[in-house]
């Protein structure tokens, strides 16, 4: 059974940092693109960041560019999201996702595996 388990969420103040982790099991994602998405209450799930199978190519949503960094550890079958300068509008449930594609992809339909999500709350 394939599982993606996120961790690292929490309640922080505006300007603080958090590092989200996503550990995969049941399947190697070493040849797969990985991504992070988020969903705020009453809103659709949206793309945040993605990384290619080699880790040499990344993509970010405009609203996180310069603040968030995605990385991966293929040995640990894990992906990370370093979030700096957090804003109240970053408050959402953050989801890790694994794709069958090896290149960077940004659409939710291009990801086949999803974690349960971790809550990030940023207070002003």
Helix and strand topology:
Elements: E1 3-7, E2 10-13, E3 18-25, E4 34-39, E5 46-51, E6 58-60, E7 68-73, E8 78-83, E9 92-99, E10 111-114, E11 118-123
Parallel strand pairs: 2-11
Antiparallel strand pairs: 1-3, 3-8, 4-5, 4-9, 5-6, 7-8, 9-10, 9-11
What does this structure look like?
This protein has 124 residues and is mostly beta strands. 0% of the residues lie in helices and 50% in strands. It is built from no helices and 11 strands. The strands form 2 sheets. Strands 2, 4, 5, 6, 9, 10 and 11 form a 7-stranded mixed β-sheet that branches. A hairpin with a 6-residue loop joins strand 5 and strand 6 (58-60). The termini are far apart. The model has no long low-confidence stretch (mean pLDDT 97).
Structural key phrases:
124 residues
Low-confidence stretches: none
- β-sheet strand percentage: over 45%
Q: State the end-to-end distance.
A: 40 Å
Computed over alpha carbons, the radius of gyration is: 13 Å
One letter per element, helices H and strands E, the order comes to EEEEEEEEEEE
- The pLDDT mean sits at 97
- Given helix and strand content, the structural type is mainly beta
Approximately how much helix is present in the residues?
under 10%
How many separate helices? 0
Outline: globular
Number of strands: 11
Largest sheet properties: 7 strands, mixed
């Amino acid at each position: 059974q394939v599982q993606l388990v996120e961790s690292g969420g929490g309640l922080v103040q505006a300007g603080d940092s958090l590092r989200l982790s996503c550990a995969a099991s049941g399947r190697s994602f070493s040849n797969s693109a990985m991504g992070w998405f988020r969903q705020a209450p009453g809103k659709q799930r949206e793309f945040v960041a993605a990384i290619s199978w080699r880790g040499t190519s990344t993509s970010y949503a405009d609203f996180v560019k310069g603040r968030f960094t995605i990385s991966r550890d293929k040995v640990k079958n894990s992906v990370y999201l370093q979030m700096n300068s957090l804003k109240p509008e970053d408050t959402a449930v953050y989801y890790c996702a694994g794709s069958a594609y090896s290149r960077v992809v940004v659409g939710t339909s291009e990801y086949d595996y999803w974690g349960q999500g971790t809550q990030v709350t940023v207070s002003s």
